[in-house]
Structures are given as C-alpha cells and as structure tokens.
Amino acid sequence: MKNNEWTSISWIRHLRTRARTFDFLIISIFSSSLGLRWLIPATIYPNSPNDDYLGVMLAHNLIRGHWFGGWSPDLLSKPPAYSFFLMIAHFIPVDPTVLIHLFYLLISLLFLKFTVDFFSGSDESKKLFIRVGFLFLAFNPAVFANDFSRIYRTSLDTLATFLFFTLFLKLLTLLRDIYFSGDRLAWKHTSIKTYSWIGISLGLTYSVMVLTRYEAIWVLIATIPVLFAVWIFSISRNEIKWKLKNKYRSGVILINLFVIATVAYLIPVGVISTINKAVYGVFEVENFFSGNYERAITLWEGVQTGKSNLSFIPVSKGQRAAVYAVSPAALSLKPFLDGLPNTGWKTHNCAATGVCDESGGGWFPWELRSAAVDSNHIRNEVQFQDFFGRLADEISLACKSELISCGSSGMAPGAKPILDYSPHQLLDTSVKAFGSLFTLEQAANVNHADNGQDPAQLKVWHSTIHFNYLIVTKNSNSWMGMANTITFLRDIYRYLLPIFFILAMLFLFIRQEYINRISKFYLFSLILGLITYSGGMAIFESSVGFNVGYSLYALPMQPVLLMFIIFGSAAMTLRPKEIL
C-alpha cells in the first residue's frame, strides 16, 4: 500500500477518534443558548450621558484614535473597561450582547471542566455532570433579560466575576495538589512557573473588574481569607510534623502568588493612568471614587451639623449650610445646589423616593460635579481636581478647628458613614437582596427599549455598535414569543434555585473524606462573596432609595449563586480525589 493511502487511512481514523470525543449534546445546548441570545435585540438608552451613552461615547473616541476625547465633567466618571470592550466589538460584526453571551458560555464550560477535575469519578459520570450543569448555566434566564441585554458595563462586570471565581477554583485545586500531595512536602519542589499563570490570570481579571466597576474589592474579601485558611489548614494537619521554619516557608507560595497577581493587576491600571496623565494632566483611571472629588464629598457626608435622618440623603440642606459658612469653595456652589424643589437632579430623587427638595445618594454626587463646573468655569481635569482639593481642605480644616461638628467620612460618593445606617435596616436589606437572587429579580421582563430622539447621540450609537435589529421587531409575534420564553425559564428557575441551594448548603455540614474539606473552602468562598455583595447592595440601596434587589446592580451575584449550586452538587455526587 502506498504511503499516501496510509496517510489517508490514518487521517480517517484520527477524525473518527475526534468525533467520538465530540459531545454533540454540548454543541446543541451551546448553539441553542447562543441562538436565543441572538434573537433578542440589545436594549439601548441613548439619552444617558452618565451611564450607557458615556460608555459608547468613550468607545467611539477610542475607535477614532482620540483616546477618550476632549475633556468634559463626566468623561472620567466611570472606569473605561467596557468602552475598550465595545471598541474591540466594533471590529467584529456581531452585537456586543451576543459576544458577551459567547464568552459567558465558554466560561461556563471552563468552570464545569475545573469542577469535574477537582473530583474523581468515571468519565461517564463526569460527562453527564457537565451536560446537566451546562444546560443549567446556558439557559439561566438572567443572562437573556432586559438588564443583561443593555449595552452597559454590568454585563462585563458579571462576566469578569464569573471568570474570577472560576480561576479561583483552579487555584484551590493547584494548592490542594501542592500542599496535600503524597510527597507531603511538594511545596518545596514547586516551581513558580507552576502557578504563575493562574496568578497572572487572576490579576488581569481583577483589573478588568476594577476597570469596570470600582467596587470590585468584594471578591478579594471573599477569596483572600480562604487562601490563608487553606494554608493554615495545610500546616496544622496531624499527619505531618511541621518544623517551624517549614510552616513559614510553605507560605512563600501564597506570597509569590500575591506578588504576581498584583503586578498583573497594576500593569493595565498603570498604563491607563499614565495615558490619562499625558492627555488630561492627572494620573488617574477615573475621578468619581478616587482623587480630590471623592475626598471632598465623603468629608461633606461626614459633617454632623444639620444631618438628615433619611438614609438616602447623603448631604442635606443643613449640612450644606454648615459648610457654606466655613468654606468659600462650597459657598460658590450654593446657587446651583439650593435650587427649587423638583428641578434639575432633584427630579430623579422626587420620582424615586417622593422627597423633592433634596438630591439622593444616586444623584447628589452628579449634581455636585455639575455645580462645581458651572460655578467655577472648570474647563479641564487639573482645574477639576484643584477645586475639589480646595473644597476638601477647607472642610477638613473646619472640622479640625471644630468650627463645624464632624464624624467619620462617608463610605463613598453618595453613601453616608456606615454607622449612620441602622443595623436592622442593613440586615433586612441584605437578606432581601440575597433573596432576590431566588425570585430572579435579575431576570426582569425582556424589553425593547430604544428611547431617545437626539440625532447626534443616535449617530454615535449607530456608528459604534453593531445592532441586531434584523431578526425580530418590536411587538412582533417572534418578539413576544421570546419574551414569554424568558418568563417561562424564570418561573422554572424560581422553583429549582431554592431547592438546589439548600442541597448544596447541606454539603457544608456533612462529614466526609479529609481532603474534601478543600471543596468546602471553595463553597465557603462563594457564599462569603454572596454575603459580602448583599451587604454592599444593602448600603447602596439604602443610600439611593431604590427597591431591594434592584436587578441592574445585583446581576454579578447571579452566576456566583449558580456556581455554588453546581459545585455543591458535584461535591455530593462525585468522589473527592485522594491526594494524601
């Protein structure tokens, strides 16, 4: 037989082998989920200069090589990661919501792969678990509904959260194999190369989270203590007589990981800050949660004189009057901040809370920024920072001189000091925020929002984003059918989520094999993340007067809940790997 005939036969055998490993059920689920997402048009809010439109405008300028564009008061008010994503998506002829969903499905498969790798079991049982788990994740109604369909940063933040906890699972698997291997002192022989890739991946993912939403620190609260606990657990085992020096040396792995992840995180943040320094004159990524503006407004929120008892009024008329008397910078803002009720930014608070003569925590920070720019004719970022630096210094000096009564600073722009919130209020709101995950407020009805008549803004939208308007039109039978499909999925998941969550929680109280305690560490990390985020939601919702479980901001918690359920189910159905 000729060589080319042998080559043909070997290729046929190779293709047959590959075909056997190809899971057509997974492909079907993947295609069906992506197809459903494709049929649902993006939700856009063109007239949203501080939110949706801001992200699109920054992407519009990036595409044209103008960095973020000419300076304006709100240009640097939001981190720019989502705008970079939209810039990349611009060169791919697909709706950005479809791209997000594609990455969501890929991360789902990665998470399921890491999950089954954590445990032992037959190939058939693992394959079945991946199929069922992928079906559960792929048709999660929250990723099809209105808020996830917005051309807005929340979807990217949710995706990055999902990836972060997926990579964290891989890190725990790696640490388990190092600290609990048969060698028992394998950590001594572990090369930095073995775990540097996971440190780099976690650092970069965290940078995406920070560059999407500043509040990303909640994932560190949920993971770093667990890493420390794993190390303590490894050196406290009775089977190994650890020498004191070895107890400390075994922690070198964690130290190296922190250093690697920190460097990976700082590189993109530093690059953006450096370019902003060159373009706008200030070394910063954003100017809402950092810099002199953040210092000035949080100091003002901490003034005790004239403080409102309403949790959603961060700086009341009484507090403003007290600071006007001691700060020339603040006094210049008075005509703009003390306007007529239900005018300007106060209209939003009036509609949301019924209080019409004040601006709530969701709007006062923006009102303050606008007032500063208009009253002091601020035209660039250096002037912006200088004004708020002067305002912060004057409030700080008045506090130190006891000209006004001051307490601790506010938690963030729009949020009072933590002690100003009733513990009962925070606990009640946290529980309700956590409970909203099971009622699936995050899967609110599918809408077809494209309101906005400003031709200039619409031109920016349509020149930047690829919209998928060709499949269905508003009020068509197909549109209504898809809306009903998402509602149907939501009704199913409302019954499934509480049941499976309780079953996954039971695993935390079941005494099993020694090494399986590491899986409990991961479950604890997930539940700690959910609790931490729920607490943050409680503060946020108390600050702005929104309904509890407001879906747009609760979305990042949703995949974490599903991860807890899936991993907990795996822990109860698949055997733990024998490492010792």
From TrEMBL:
Keywords: Membrane, Transmembrane, Transmembrane helix. The chain crosses the membrane at residues 21-40, 81-107, 128-145, 151-173, 194-211, 217-236, 248-267, 492-509, 521-540, 552-574. The keyword Transmembrane helix applies. The keyword Transmembrane helix applies. This is Unannotated protein. It comes from freshwater metagenome.
